[in-house]
Amino acid sequence: MDNSDKILPRISIGFSEAWWYKYYGDDTSGKDRRRLLFERFGDIGLGEENPQPQPYVGGEYGDRFMSAFWGCEIVYIQGQAPAALILPDAWNRMENLEVPDIKTSPVVQKAFEKAHKLKERYGYCTAGVNFGGPLNNAVSVFGSDILLACVAEPEMAQRVLQKMGEAVLAIHDLVVCKINGVDPKTTRTGGWGIGNCPVCMVSPKTYYDVVLPEDLWIRNQFQGEFNLHHCGVFDAYAEAYRPLNPSSLDVGPGTDLRITRTAYPNAKISTYIEVGALAKMSRDEIDELIIKMMEDASPAELFTAITVADAGPEISDETVRNLMTATKRIQEEL
After folding, report:
1. Which terminus has fewer CB within 10 Å in the chain: N or C?
2. How far is residue 79 from each of residues 16, 20, 38, 46, 224, measured CA to CA in Å?
3. SS3 of 248, please?
């Protein structure tokens, strides 16, 4: 590594519901969590000393707003993030799938009602949905049946994925943008991104032949920068994703960053450290891993972030401190 280059990626950590439950019980609001993090880790930059209210619509479903919109029951289990129960009779539903009516959707009505109450109390609120990509949503709603359909009934699978994409666009334009008071045309020129967490469950060829056309449809609805999130190891899918022409890549733990950088020389890259691996690392091992990531994903200005997602009780406070202070140590050595 060129020692004159001192640009380092941002490092962040998020804690799982199991972590919060173990240390603080189940009754922690967003405001309390920010304060509790500051009390525990404020010296390393986590949390807020005096957190202000953040009136927000969409968070009550966790990452499952779109699943709820499609009619899935959302279940809340102590110490876990909200989960969606897949719809019964999935195959028949997929054969006859239509986007639910926005105007009569109870989930949408609930979102607008909550937004109205928050605006009355605080004077404003924001709305957001973790949209994911068409396949993300289809797997959450129909489970493994959509994966089987991608192989056995690709035309039906593509129709399902198209409907999933249309629903994403409808919620974006008619719900999120409306609550936030912005013109959808404005947000559509400001960049976009999709998450492809279940893609590793299909082959790169199946992705390219069946899923990619619907991802491209979503991609073409927006202008500006385009971010692609791929939870799993990215290497085998690097070529299959090329038509999306992503400006930034968020790739899963274990990805060969040299392969990724070679395939996408001009894209910004961010990646993850797997929680189980982090739990076993010493401070020196954490530093060595981050330095290797920086070397593999260079140039430094295009390697933007390293994240640990859903850190559980197996991650000690000492490990959290070692992780969050790593860039300072590395910076001093460069």
Report:
1. N
2. 8, 7, 21, 21, 38
3. strand
